[in-house]
Amino acid sequence: MSNPAMSQKTEGDVLVGQLFSSAQCAADPYPTYRQLREISPVFQSSLGHWVITGHAETESVLRDPTVGKDFRSFIQAQGTQDWESHPSYTRVLDHLIWANPPEHTRQRRLISKGFSAQAIAQMEPKVEDLVEELLEPISSKGPHESDILSAFAFPLPAAVISELIGVPRADWPGFQRLFRDVTLAMEPRPTAEQLDIADSAALEINDYFGWLIETRRARPENDLISTLLQAEDSGDKLTHSELMSLVQFLFGAGFESTTNLIGNGLLGLIEHPDQLHKLRRDPSLIPGAVEELLRYDASVQLTPRAAFEDTVIGGVEVPAGASIIAVLGAANRDPLRYPDPDKLKIDRTGVKPLSFGSGIHFCLGAALARIEGKMAFSGLIRHFSGIELAAEPVWKSSLVLHGLEELKVQVTPAA
User: Fold this and answer.
1) d(CA 259, CA 160)
2) Quick one: how far is CA 215 from the chain centroid?
3) Local confidence band at 234 (pLDDT 50, 70, 90 cut-offs)
4) How far apart are CA 257 and CA 356, in angstroms?
5) Mean pLDDT over residues 330-343, rounded?
6) Cis omega (within 30 of 0) on the bond before 102?
7) Which of 25, 118, 163, 355 is deepest in the core (most CB within 10 A)?
8) What is the 3-state secondary structure of the chain?
């Protein structure tokens, strides 16, 4: 006689395995999320992780003080036994994203000095100027085919974060590959080849930012690195190691996730021409549209956590020490939170995507990313009366940082 619970457990493990290894799932994980959530929104995988796909359950994990960041338990659950020999892991040991209170509180307090509302507001006209600088040459060519990722969606956030942090503009084009490579170490179950690629990139990135920080220490400028070098709170300052890991993370996350927001969002609009038309008719919908695009196809699909003590998630008992993967992309498409979640609706109300996280680890750069998203989509509909697919989109093989490798479109400039 078959055991339904055992059958569901086996099916769930197959689905989790597909998520963590299939290029097809990396391109479109949502059907797999839906199947896994239907089995259980809190699923204990035989791979060593508790996989959370429900919205209420994911939000509770992100806000629960008994659940936090534990780098070592995450890496051990990854199956990487010799992680201390990999620079792609050791370089982030002091990183804010893996810290918990009180250390997290301390670092965040110091770092927030560089992300004040005034500092972010000052970036808005610069973002607007960069949007025009990048879109004007494209629209001036007349109707033609363009890879909008390489022409616009990557250079815009790369230029913005370079400007903010203080990376000389001549240097930033080479970082797209490096930061894409180094994030391979954060994929669930990375292969030996992926770790080799990530390690090589980590060393190159580390050398560059070590040089840049020492340059700013000797000659401060009006940028985030100089601000963080001078940031002090009751005599406390960031250590060199903390500053190194922070600046590297901010630079990588600052362009990769926003590139994905623009690329994934534009593809979503192209695939829903009625929504793109609605946006053209009423540009005042753009701020809400950015929230819906963040919900519909999140740039960051999942975030790891660990249970510090026995806890209950969605009515399921999770033991202390458990490795937890909160799947933000799945939570954003939970029908219990968003009716008809697989449809893009730019005028959807009550949208509060978990794409930037929640709780104490909420993304520091969320406000800047939203500004870039609003400016980018405003510029695209202003410059082009037509944007259509010119070739099948090419997706990256990454599940964690979910985005396109190539998006070729046929653009028709506005009259």
Assistant:
1) 11
2) 29
3) low
4) 10
5) 98
6) yes
7) 355
8) CCCHHHHHHHHHHHHHHHHHHCHHHHHCCHHHHHHHHHHCCEEECCCCEEEECCHHHHHHHHHCCCEECCHHHHHHHHCCCCHHHCHHHHCCCCCHHHCCCCHHHHHHHHHHHHCCHHHHHHHHHHHHHHHHHHHHHHHCCCCEEEEHHHHHHCHHHHHHHHHHHCCCCCCHHHHHHHHHHHHHHHCCCCCHHHHHHHHHHHHHHHHHHHHHHHHHHHCCCCCHHHHHHHCCECCECCCHHHHHHHHHHHHHHHHHHHHHHHHHHHHHHHHCHHHHHHHHHCHHHHHHHHHHHHHHCCCECEEEEEECCCEEECCEEECCCCEEEEEHHHHCCCCCCCCCCCCCCCCCCCCCCCCCCCHHHCCCCHHHHHHHHHHHHHHHHHHEEEEEECCCCEECCCCCECCEEECEEEEEECC
* Alpha-carbon dihedral 306, 309, 312, 317, rounded to 10 degrees: 90
Q: Are strands 144-147 and 408-413 parallel, antiparallel or unpaired?
A: antiparallel
pLDDT at 240: 85
Say if residues 389 and 178 touch (Cβ distance below 8 Å): no
Q: Which residue has the tokens 């990396």?
A: 26
Distance CA 109, CA 103 (A): 10
Q: Give the sign of the dihedral formed by CA 117, CA 123, CA 125, CA 130.
A: negative
For residue 5, what are its two tokens?
């619970």
> Token pair for residue 351?
């949208």
The confidence score (pLDDT) of residue 370 equals: 95
The predicted model scores a pTM of: 0.89
Specify the pairing of strand 408-413 against strand 67-68. unpaired
Given a cut of 70, whether residue 253 has pLDDT beyond it is yes
Give me the mean pLDDT over the 152-175 stretch: 85
CB 143 within 8 A of CB 410: yes
Burial class (CB in 10 A: 0-12, 13-18, 19+), 92: buried
**What pLDDT, in 10s, does the model give residues 344-355?**
999 999 999 999
Predicted pLDDT of residue 403: 94
Q: Whose CA is closest to 184, among 399, 15, 379?
A: 399
Q: Which fold has domain 4-413?
A: Cytochrome p450 (1.10.630)
| Average pLDDT over every residue of 367-380 | 96
